[in-house]
Known about the structure:
Elements: H1 2-24, H2 29-50, H3 54-62, H4 64-69, H5 75-104, H6 109-114, H7 127-144, H8 147-150, H9 155-162, H10 165-175, H11 179-203, E1 211-216, E2 222-226
Helix pairs in contact: 1-2, 2-5, 2-11, 5-7, 7-10
Amino acid sequence: MMLMLYILINIGLLIYVTIYRVTTTKSHALVVVARICGMLLNFNCAFIIVLMLRQTILLIRSNRVLRKLIPVDDHIDFHGVVGRVITALSFLHAIAHIAYIAALTNYSMATYLFFMNLGIGWVNGFAPLSGIILLLILVTMVICSMQWVRSGGHFGVFYWTHLLYLPFYVFLILHAEDFWKWIVGPLSIFLLEKLYSIFARYTSGIGRTCIHTATIEQSNVISLTIHRPKHFS
């Protein structure tokens, strides 16, 4: 049900942008493709944050009705699917823009991609250069989140490179004029959850675990003796 709703939202946005760009702005086909990808990226880059709202997901899971309607247990797999969609849309968005510049303008590719004097974008012509930075960050995150990295003894690589989501969203806000409108809600909840987690971690004993001993057994198995919390059941 959630997957179908997700697909329908993407299709609806695609149709809306296509109609608007073809009938109202009379845009070139390559620009239409770039704008479609841009709109879908706005939605998907905001939605992927929703899938990582852990406290919200816990609240949904604790409600008998909501957990039947919303498959919260699949949120990590769904996060991966949306991440792949974002990657594909990002490259298609970039290719469409580059193809349009190469075929229909007199600007050199270097001038378009690396200089800000053309005034492209809402922050002093920063859109093309920020787009390159975003692609580099995205590719790094995608490669380092692959299964062979996470399960090959390099989970730390996955964890630390995934923190690149912080500069990714900063540059995305600078890159896309309207993206802040999409992210303000999910990002606000995300930040509130982070603050709550930090507060709960350092102001209460709930959730704290004390390890008494750690022993390396045969076959590199680690044996832990952990104190049982008072209210654990």
